[in-house]
Design brief:
The complex is a heterodimer of chains A (about 350) and B (about 525). With about 350 residues, chain A is an all-alpha fold. Chain A contains 14 helices and no strands. Chain A has a domain at about 95-300: MetI-like fold, CATH 1.10.3720. In chain A, helix 6 (about 130-145) packs across helix 9 (about 195-230). The radius of gyration of chain A is 24 Å and the shape is globular. Chain A starts with a helix and ends with a helix. The mean pLDDT of chain A is about 85. Chain B has 15 helices and 20 strands. In chain B, the strands form six sheets. A six-stranded mixed β-sheet of chain B has the order 13-17-12-16-14-15. A four-stranded mixed β-sheet of chain B has the order 1-10-9-8, covered by helices on one side. Chain B has a four-stranded antiparallel β-sheet with strand order 4-5-7-6, with helices on one face. In chain B, a hairpin with a 5-residue loop joins strand 4 and strand 5. Chain B is globular and about 75 Å long. Residues about 20-25 of chain B have low confidence and may be disordered. Classes of the chains: A mainly alpha (about 350), B alpha+beta (about 525).
């Protein structure tokens, strides 16, 4: 375990380097893409004196390294600057929008965890029989279809043709009001003793979360199935089977556990992909999250907001992968041993 | 396996329970007397900050302007019940109504009017551009009288004042954030106005979900009163994704779709539900072919003229931009002093003659004409392709360039980077032609997306300045006509269409008949009627 701690500390050190690199890259990119950020912020008709005053205030006239210095010196104090899109502090925007995206990603992350393993195991158990064919065939279609297409399709099916789920967007219907405790609406509604609001929040979450998770679920189901089948042919399974160990014990204890390790690793990467796909899904569902905020920021060349969002995403991605590495290490004794050596 | 079966069964029961109990369709629809509309972006209802369409929509409903626009393009008394102009046209005295109360309960006085102008010019955003170069000072000459002094005589001032909204001074002064860019005024109340309003208008803001929506409810104490049927509440959604808009309209969760919806989506909504109807409002907005007057070969008026004859206006107005009308002047047809000065129609012979008379006649085929269109407006590509195809008929080599809007805006800053030709849609903020002359033709304003024609003509600048300084409306209208004729002779740019706002609305329980052809006024809620009892159950 001490070696695991050392690894984690090393990874955290590297994470800091990665974050600084990431901030430099995104800051430079945002500055070199076409469009005068001051003019975009104030509009085409703002008098030139006003625009010039704004440029000076935002240090846009300084050389790029100096601009980065000003920005970074504020960031280390927790000040991400003002957003030109919302006209508020970016830190405040992130605090407001991040929980909505986190809630969406958490719910979108649940189906891969449960259903990917379930479908993967089913596919392996019924290899080359109809359940396996069905899972494999549907996974081809689902994986090949982009997430935003699923989002639009779900909206059409469950909002337009079968109007059983909300289409207005947002996190709650009109008339509900839930005090913010954790920022996660379903949980907050339950904590506040409002089951109807929780149910309503869940209904708002369902379609965007489903659209986000579908592709990843099927991708991971295929991976689980493949590793299950690969492991099934190994000598140790043959040996255990010959010893008369019941099939369900073999499946659960000796086959499933080693087979899910690669899937769990992939899940860590998928979290980043879910955040990426959320950009379009949040726009389609009018979800008040960080990705939708980032979309408006990118289109409005809102440098501070984009840099803030990228940094937060970077931290989330690094943290998630660190956690996945720890989980994998706990699942796989070989990794623990290799670290201790 | 038993576990799997139980899991599967449990999942089915959960799904069934969800479908039966969750979110009955119309939960958002049974909202009473409400008017909900989508927009492309989040409005900014601080009068010193917002000036785009969405902001204008909220501003006209939440604040009162000094004067109010009339359907014929003029103005009528509003917060100012009367006014006088000095003989030299420099001093304007306004008498303020004494019965106006802000949403806060504070009474609106001359001090609020003075404060509002000082705040607008101090912050300098929003509609400040209409006053920035002309207003010298403003002072209260009594509790309900205001004197505004101009730097030079400024004829269009009255029409510009329809965009001057009065804010509640006392309320804002109580809510200055200490950390701000305006000295002792802190942030001048900007942060407060992100989540509240400081107006006296017929509706008051009661809910803000940043980047998502803003809602308001009726202000029963409104001095001008209400007719029966006006909506009790409004919501503006800051997102207009086509499928969601269509879905919300079908579920009566939206009373009106925004005018940015594509022709295809509008038709699809109308085809799917015969209770939906289309309302039109000609707000002077239209499509123009900007021409960089300094770049060869379009620096030659004859080439610019030829381009005007290469456009199939009939197809443009009926198929590509339905319900549009051909624009026949450099200003919109509802603007003061409008004069029909162009008589273009698609005519290859006239186009050939024009090219033959140009100084590039012998080598025109070797000089590509770059035509830029904004990649965020899909319809423009169809127009570009049409021009390219017709131009090729007479040997003109038009190359189409697709650029994102931010790049077009950025490139417009300098004459060298401004596109040779570009299709740009403009909606004037006021009904006075002055705003269009100043923002589109004057040398001083060159280098914006509204003025990348780079006419750089001192004679034209002088004509515009002279017209602006003419306070007498009739004389100013004549001066405006002369400017239009002057530009038409030189083909400074080619006007293409005047395109109405096309608004799909719930005709079964909403009356939407815009009366004022100005940006945002399609949604002036005192002119809207909502009948909740006529909603389908």
């Amino acid at each position: 375990m001490p070696s695991l701690l050392t690894t984690v500390l090393k990874r955290l050190g590297w994470a800091l380097v990665v974050l600084v690199g990431l901030s430099m890259l995104i800051f430079s990119l945002m500055r070199v893409i076409p469009g005068d950020p001051a003019r975009l912020a104030l509009g085409p008709t703002a008098p030139e004196e006003v625009v010039e005053r704004y440029r000076a205030r935002m240090h846009y006239n300084d050389p790029l390294p100096m601009q980065y210095y000003w920005w970074l010196s504020d960031v280390v104090r927790g000040d991400f600057g003002m957003s030109t899109v919302t006209r508020r502090e970016v830190a405040r925007d992130l605090a407001e929008f991040l929980p909505a995206t986190l809630e969406l990603v958490i719910w979108a992350g649940l189906p891969p965890i449960f259903f990917a393993l379930l479908l993967g195991v089913l596919g392996a158990m019924y290899k080359n029989r109809w359940p396996d064919y069905l899972i494999r065939f549907s996974s081809y279609i689902i994986i090949a279809t982009p997430t935003f297409v699923w989002a639009v399709l779900f909206l059409l099916i469950f909002g337009y043709w079968l109007p059983i789920l909300p289409s207005v967007g947002g996190r709650l219907s009109m008339g509900f009001s839930v005090p913010s405790i954790t920022g996660l609406m379903v949980l907050d509604a339950l904590l506040a003793g409002q089951p109807a609001a929780a149910w309503d929040a869940f209904a708002h979450l369902l379609l965007p979360a489903l659209a986000l998770s579908l592709g990843h679920t099927m991708q991971e189901a295929r991976l689980t199935r493949s590793y299950m089948l690969e492991n099934e042919g190994k000598d140790y399974i043959t040996m255990i089977t010959s010893q008369g160990v019941p099939r369900n014990v073999i499946n659960r204890k000796y086959l499933l556990r080693p087979s899910v390790i690669p899937t769990v690793s992939i899940m860590g990467l998928d979290i980043a992909a879910i955040f990426g796909n959320a950009f379009l899904v949040e726009t389609i569902f009018n979800w008040p999250g960080m990705s939708r905020y980032a979309m408006s920021a990118i289109l409005g060349k809102d440098v501070n907001a984009v840099c803030g969002v990228v940094l937060v995403l970077g931290v989330i991605f690094i943290t998630t992968n660190l956690l996945v590495d720890i989980v994998v290490a706990l699942l796989d004794p070989r990794m623990r041993q290799s670290r201790s050596k | 396996m038993k576990l799997m079966k139980r899991l599967f069964l449990g999942l089915c029961v959960l799904c069934l329970a969800f479908v039966v109990t969750a979110c009955p369709a119309g939960a958002e629809g049974e909202a009473g007397s409400i008017f909900r509309v989508t927009q492309a972006i989040m409005p900014r209802w601080d009068p010193a900050v917002g000036s785009d369409y969405a902001s204008g929509l909220v501003l006209i409903n939440v604040y009162d302007s000094l004067v109010f626009p009339t359907p014929d393009g003029g103005v009528r008394p509003w917060v100012a019940e009367s006014w006088n102009i000095s003989e030299d046209g420099l001093i304007w005295d306004f008498k303020i109504r004494e019965d106006i109360v802000f949403h806060s309960g504070n009474r609106l006085t001359a001090q609020d009017v003075v404060y509002s102008m000082q705040r607008l010019l101090g912050i300098g955003e929003g509609f400040a551009f209409l006053f920035y170069s002309y207003v010298d000072s403003i002072e209260a000459t009594g509790d309900y009288s205001v004197r505004l002094r101009c730097k030079t005589p400024y004829g269009p001032l009255l029409n510009s004042l329809v965009r001057f909204y009065v804010v509640d001074r006392k309320l804002l002064e109580q809510h200055y954030a200490a950390a701000g860019d305006y000295g002792d005024k802190g942030d001048w109340g900007r942060a407060y106005l992100l989540e509240h309003d400081a107006g006296s208008g017929p509706w008051t803001i009661d809910g803000v979900s940043t980047n998502i929506s803003v809602s308001g409810s009726i202000f029963r104490g409104y001095w001008a009163g209400f007719e029966a049927g006006v909506p009790e509440k409004f919501i503006v959604y800051a997102s207009n994704e086509a499928v969601r808009v269509k879905t919300m309209m079908s579920r009566q969760e939206l009373e009106c779709a925004d005018h940015y919806q594509t022709t295809e989506n509008i038709q699809s909504m109308l085809d799917a539900d015969n209770t939906l109807k289309l309302a039109h409002n000609y707000t002077g907005g239209g499509l123009n072919l900007w021409l960089n007057n300094q770049k060869a070969p379009v620096d030659d008026p004859k080439i610019r003229e030829a381009l005007g004859y290469l456009i199939d206006y009939a197809t443009l107005c009926s198929k590509i931009l339905p319900d549009s009308i051909q624009k026949k002047s450099i200003v919109s047809s509802n603007a003061l002093g409008y004069k029909e000065v162009f008589s273009f129609s698609m005519d290859f012979e006239k186009a050939k003659q024009a090219v033959a008379g140009s100084r590039y006649a012998d080598r025109i085929g070797t000089l590509p004409i770059e035509l830029v269109w904004n990649s965020e407006s899909a319809d423009r590509e169809k127009v570009a392709l049409m021009i390219q195809a017709t131009a090729s008929q007479i040997g003109l080599n038009v190359s189409i360039v697709e650029l994102p809007w931010s790049t077009i805006v950025s490139n417009s800053a300098r004459v060298e980077t401004s596109p040779m030709t570009a299709m740009v849609s403009v909606t004037p903020p006021t009904s006075d032609s002055a705003s269009q002359f100043v923002s589109q033709l004057r040398t001083k304003t060159s280098g914006t997306w509204e003025n990348m024609n780079w006419v750089n003509d001192p004679a034209l600048d002088e004509m515009i300045d002279k017209a602006l300084a003419t306070v007498d409306i009739a004389k100013r209208a004549v001066a405006y006509s002369e400017i239009q004729e002057y530009c038409a002779k030189r083909f400074t740019f080619i006007p293409l269409t005047e395109t109405p706002e096309r608004l799909v609305y719930q005709a079964s329980y909403v009356d939407l008949a815009p009366k004022i052809g100005l940006q945002g006024f399609s949604f002036y809620l005192r002119d809207v009627r909502v009948y909740p009892d006529r909603r389908k159950k």
